[in-house]
Amino acid sequence: MKLGRNDPCHCGSGKKYKKCHEAADAAKESSELAALQAKAEAEKAAEEAEAAEKDPKAAAAAKKAAARPSGHSSKPKERITTAANPIRRKAV
Ligand SMILES: [Zn+2]
Fold this sequence. Notes:
Blueprint: H1 22-54, H2 56-67
Bound molecules: zinc ion.
Zinc ion (ZN) binds at residues 9, 11, 13, 20-21.
């Protein structure tokens, strides 16, 4: 249940919520949200650092791949084996 702004404050002061704890609650809520976000980000960073520690080669490769401009990859040529392809389409 949400407290109305004109209802008496939950702290028992007898004041209206908007005159008492509304601002404090809003600040607390947003700071809690920020703390949660910071925690999630820190956990993600720690996970990534852990993964990089476990597999430095993969981390280096990922870094390289990220640094390399796209469209200039030396990917091996795909060999299309048309003769071995069981599904042969008749040219129309
Ligand atoms: Zn209050």
